[in-house]
Write a structure and sequence with these properties.
Helix content is 96%, strand content 0%. By secondary structure, the chain is an all-alpha fold. The longest helix is centred in the middle third of the chain and has 102 residues.
Length: 136
């Protein structure tokens, strides 16, 4: 039993000495105390939050600029489309007017021909009737 107590005492002494050596090493090699570490972590979190906020503002400005540019380009494209539509419409109206004038001219010519034929036929009938009257 005496030997077990010596073994346990040696183990306990080694455990305590190892703990003290470890604690001393940690204190010597530790860069900062707990309070300093918490302060540094708090400062880093504030810095990261500020950087995140700044980047968010930058991205928002970029997005606003991109949306403004897109709206401008869409407005310009709409204006160009309206201008092109007006040109096509004006050309179509001019062509319709020209074709309408041509049709009216052709119709007038055909009507004049028909009137001339009717007059010629009427003159022929009058001449025939005049001849019949003269022969009677």
């Amino acid at each position: 039993m005496n030997e077990q107590n010596n073994d346990f005492g040696a183990f306990l002494a080694g455990f305590v000495i190892g703990g003290l050596v470890g604690a001393a090493t940690a204190l010597i090699l530790a860069p900062q105390s707990g309070d300093e570490m918490r302060a540094q972590l708090a400062q880093k979190s504030v810095d990261l939050r500020d950087m995140g906020t700044e980047r968010a503002h930058q991205y928002q400005e970029r997005a606003t600029t991109a949306v403004s540019g897109a709206r401008s380009r869409v407005g310009d494209a709409g204006t160009q489309a309206q201008d092109q539509a007006r040109l096509v419409l004006d050309k179509g109206k001019a062509r319709l007017h020209r074709n309408g004038d041509e049709i009216a001219e052709e119709t007038s010519e055909v009507a004049e021909e028909i009137v001339d034929e009717i007059i010629a036929d009427a003159d022929a009938i009058v001449d025939d009737v005049q001849e019949d009257v003269d022969t009677v």
